[in-house]
Amino acid sequence: MRSGSLNSKSSTHGSGGANVKLVWLLLMIPVAYLVVSRSIAHLCEQRLYDGDRLEVRDCRECLGKGHDEKYARDFNGLGINCMACLGTGKIQVLVPGLQRPTQVWGAVIDWQAGESWTSHQCPKDVRLDLENSILLSTEEKSLRGALPGIGVWFKTDGGRVSAKTDRGGRFGCKLLPGRYVVEVEAEGFAKLQSTLEIEALRAPVWLEKNTILHGRSPEERKSKDGIAVIILLERSGEGSGMLRTFLLPE
Ligand SMILES: [Zn+2]
Known about the structure:
28% strand; extended; four-stranded mixed sheet; binds zinc ion; Immunoglobulin-like; alpha+beta
């Protein structure tokens, strides 16, 4: 009785609006699903380049046994799956080839406006994590003194790669191993020309399912490691600027 009266009320007053909302909601479900699944797929992507090899090796955390030895010792032989290999004892290892590029995260900065920049320090948020890139406003994302809309050229014998800084003054690109001449021109600033050496990745990349505690050498690279290229421009007539690189661990 009561629900009937409610239904009739809603059908006479707001059913058109409610239906439209419902249709929108139903339409948004597949869209949201697509966005979420695509971004997860993107995050999990382990792209292989020509010359890269995937190998399966014994897990270095549990030495191929599949269970956590320390846990087993502390709890009287009771086993728990190793978190690195999820109990399989095996880990996929990517052996990089010569065509594997290095990820570059960069920024072009007006050295004078960003006074706090010292050339020995890497700005800590030059690589924005996914969370911050979604949640922060453009203003909050900007690095101090960073210049938007600036073209950056990486020239090598094999051709050239270009990038442009976004509204927050950052840019990103992938560079193959080799020696590059980097050129940046911006109105009111001295042209910067510098060289950049990108070394081939040699260390195997262990694709563990979780962060491991043992067995990892400190200088080893991981799949999402890369370098930061910070370009400091000086006003025309004041100097020729500077390019600095920093290794960015995963
Ligand atoms: Zn393991």
